[in-house]
Amino acid sequence: MQIMVDLIHLDPNSVVPKYLQIIDAIVHHITIGNIKIGDKIPSINKLSQDIYLSRDTVERAYSVLKKRKVLVTVQGKGTYIADTDSIAKPKVLFFVNKLSPYKTKIFNSFINKLGDNYKVDLHSYHSDESLFLELMEKYKSSYDYFVIAPHFRNNDLTHISTTEKVTKVINKIPKENLILLDNCDYDIQGDFNEVYQDFKKDIFSALEQAKDSLAKYNKLTIVYPRTSFYPYPKSILDGLQNYCVQNNFKFEIIEEVTDGTEVESKNLFITLEDNDLVKVVNKIRSSKYNLGKDVGVISYNDSPLKKLLGITVITANFESMGNQAANIILEQKKGKSKIPINIIKRDSV
Q1: pLDDT, tens digit, 9 for 90 and up, residues 167-187
Q2: What's the pLDDT at 73?
Q3: What is the CB neighbour count within 10 angstroms for residue 56?
Q4: Same domain, 156 and 193
Q5: pLDDT digits (tens, 9 = 90+) for 106-145
Q6: How far is residue 248 CA from its own chain's centroid?
Q7: How far apart are CA 111 and CA 98, in angstroms?
Q8: What is the DSSP letter of 291?
């Protein structure tokens, strides 16, 4: 046991928490053969005394290693190295409100950047508070890191970033193990990590980038579903409305494109849902007007199909969002990073 104590070297100047340094040291020396399956390790009290750390810090490290099934405690005998198959694989819960193509794109870039030394599980709580709370209660002791995109729906099917109960649960996660993703409108305490979009400000800025192209239109029709199973943040609508007001654009807000929706010359449609995009494009094609000349269309979030069809989009760089979230874990640095929302101009305006 003294040999293991001698193998644990802590860096007092490192930004990596001490309990993680203990975990990394034990895992490293198992990997290179200095510690073997069946070796007995010091008790929590013994190790805390020998390396001059609090008992809580050592207990936390042991708890994580037990969750990974690297350590096992035998009642009355002590704690032993149990399984080297599970080592070097910290577990990450990637917890999103819906499994949309855009969230999937973030997830794929996240796991590609993180590499094979982490085990990442993707779960959706479907914007539902009860399901989120149920799954967090189930998983709270099973993961080393929690990447959470906070988007929920109220009873009236409108968007809310978090609820009081959700906030309470998230605040219990150690901040060095938490990354909040995508949204930034919440009341979470402490110095946590986040990679986010600022919908209201950046949507306004994105439209400003295309100001010259938009000048030929005299009305904006914003298709914004106020209620939905997966509702959109109201800050998206706020950004669109602010642009119209500050640029003296006449605008109308509708909840969906229906048979009664009229297509008029010099009208620009901005759609969030792909179904509404398809409907409005079909309406333009069956009218006497030309897409991108008489009637414009801007869609929210890019996709290969929108690129193929030449649809102008307001979009974030989802690959960058995933990469930056992964870097927070890989570099063990706290950080807050804003992913800008840009406009990609194509033939539809």
Answers
A1: 999 999 988 899 999 988 778
A2: 87
A3: 11
A4: yes
A5: 999 999 999 888 889 999 999 999 999 999 998 888 888 9
A6: 35
A7: 18
A8: B
Q: Does residue 191 sit in the same domain as residue 99?
A: yes
Distance CA 183, CA 36 (A): 44
Contact yes or no for 300/314 (Cβ under 8 A): yes
339 and 321 in contact (C-beta within 8 Å)?
yes
Sheet with 71-74, side-by-side order of all strands? 40-41, 78-81, 71-74
The letter for the amino acid at 296 is G
From CA 12, how far away is CA 53, in angstroms rounded? 11
* 348 domain-assigned: no
User: Are both 216 and 290 inside the same structural domain?
Assistant: yes
- Which of these three, 23, 54, 86, is where a domain ends? 86
DSSP letter at 37 equals: T
Q: What is d(CA 28, CA 31) in angstroms, rounded to the nearest whole number?
A: 5
Here the tokens at position 332 are 């063990």
Helix %, strand %, coil % of the chain (to 5): 40, 20, 40
DSSP 8-state symbol, 143: -
* Domain shared by 331 and 184, yes or no: yes
User: pTM higher than 0.85, yes or no?
Assistant: no
Looking up tokens 């995508």, which residue turns up? 182
- Residue 2 is predicted with a pLDDT of 57
